[in-house]
Model the fold of this input.
Amino acid sequence: MMTPSTRLHLQDDLGQLGERLIRFGEALQDPNTTVGKLADLAKSCGIKLHMRAVAESGVEPNAH
Done:
């Protein structure tokens, strides 16, 4: 059984997680956000971020 104090603490924790997730989502949309900053924000949300860089040639595949 949850006490009012436990419920309040849980709501506070979930609220803080929600705020961190919002900051992470905003950072993902910002082209000026560094990979290090994204990794830090992801970690604060309990997310393990894996990134991979792929070089583009500027030519679309199968373009003739």
User: Anything to note?
Assistant: The chain has a mean pLDDT of 89. The longest helix spans residues 4-29. The chain is about 55% helix and 0% strand.
